[in-house]
Description:
Helices cover about 90% and strands about 0% of the residues.
Amino acid sequence: MRGGIDVITKTYRKISLWLSVGITLLILLAGQIMTSGNTFIGNTIGIVVMAVLYFIITNIVTSNAWIKAARKTDNSLTRFYIVAPMIKMVVALVVILFIIISRRYNKTVMLESVSVFAIYYVVQLLFDCIYYSRVEKNKK
């Protein structure tokens, strides 16, 4: 089982890294197409960096927590699947509050920033759900 846990974690980290790169490229491409380019890049590059860092750091922490939970009983995995998304949501809310406070003087930039972060968060949530449901399905 130890080799299986390590392979699952390595695959999770690899896919999540590629997913964050793909989302970043899509958001930057969409921003260039929908706006004049300079204003979008100037206003949004900081939030894209923040969202990517959030995405990568939370996925590393999640995968490390999953390793610890998987090496214990199945009951601890159940707790992990309940607690991990809640912790990610609380951290995401803190990041969103930071975005709102730091960009409160320009409503348009604030909405763009929150929207970009929300895209990353929703994709991360869907990825976690799909990946871990497949892991559990293949385990049985």
